[in-house]
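User: Let's play a game. I give you a shape written as tokens, and you guess the letters that built it. Ready? Here's round one.
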């Protein structure tokens, strides 16, 4: 899957840049290229590693298998960091393309270069402010044996089985201050909320712009407007800029089960694989 995804996204990049494009459309080519680059990176990670989750009581672990475990641990450290960047980017890049469309429609005097800079500035800011929490699951050396033992117990691993274990606790402690709750409150929630507020604002502004011409529109023009607005809203369910209501819904059930497990205090153990399988499906949906 990883190799095929990498090849397909490489083909997309070649097709996008190996031909001339109509004046004024290069803005969208840049947007699609960024999407392809991010998807290619995710495909590359899938090709060299297999990451699964384990939720056991207050412990949240990431277990890596595959070729990457035969490389120095620093490579797996970087892979987990990049994986967080891509996964949170699902919504951090949501406002970028909608803002591009808003500027193209409502601010045509702005150059294409400035449109791209303005549109992606917010996404980059959201990403940079969230990044300090991307190492939440890079457990210190003294804490690693806890997550390694959880992996061996839940996955029934033999001593010779190779893997890398990462993890964090739900709440922090004096000895291990990094916690899942901090990632959720200070990284995920703010970037998610801001991204979708901006997206909705762009949709409203575009709708008002399309309906404020003050002239009698033909049936064809009205149909084109409806199609454009539908396309804009359905960006939440397509591959555009790693946007994805469908990917989020795909993980909604398993994550809901995780929240239930936290409230009830039970160990999900192997049931956590449903979340891992859902995460694997995100790149396919995109």
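Assistant: Ready! My guess for every position:
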């Amino acid at each position: 899957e990883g190799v095929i995804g990498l090849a397909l996204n490489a083909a997309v990049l070649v097709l996008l840049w190996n031909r001339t494009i109509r004046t004024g459309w290069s803005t969208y080519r840049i947007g699609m290229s960024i999407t392809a680059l991010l998807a290619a990176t995710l495909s590359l990670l899938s090709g060299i590693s297999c990451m699964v989750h384990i939720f056991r009581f207050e412990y949240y672990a990431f277990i890596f298998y595959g070729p990457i475990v035969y490389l120095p641990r620093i490579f797996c450290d970087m892979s987990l960091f990049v994986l967080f960047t891509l996964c949170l980017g699902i919504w951090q890049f949501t406002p970028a393309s909608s803002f591009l469309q808003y500027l193209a429609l409502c601010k045509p005097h702005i150059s294409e270069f400035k449109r791209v800079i303005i549109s992606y500035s917010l996404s980059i800011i959201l990403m940079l402010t969230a990044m300090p929490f991307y190492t939440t699951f890079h457990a210190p050396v003294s804490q690693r044996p806890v997550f390694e033992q959880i992996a061996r117990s839940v996955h029934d691993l033999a001593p010779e089985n190779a893997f890398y274990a990462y993890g964090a606790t739900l709440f922090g402690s004096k000895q291990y201050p990094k916690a899942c709750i901090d990632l959720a409150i200070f990284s995920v929630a703010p970037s998610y909320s801001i991204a979708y507020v901006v997206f909705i604002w762009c949709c409203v502004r575009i709708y008002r712009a399309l309906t404020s011409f003050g002239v009698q529109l033909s049936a064809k023009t009205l149909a084109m407007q409806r199609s454009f607005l539908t396309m804009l809203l359905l960006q939440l369910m397509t591959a555009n800029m790693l946007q994805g209501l469908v990917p989020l819904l795909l993980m909604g059930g398993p994550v809901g089960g995780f929240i239930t497990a936290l409230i009830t205090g039970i160990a999900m153990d192997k049931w956590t694989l449903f979340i891992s399988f859902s995460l694997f499906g995100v790149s396919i949906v995109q």
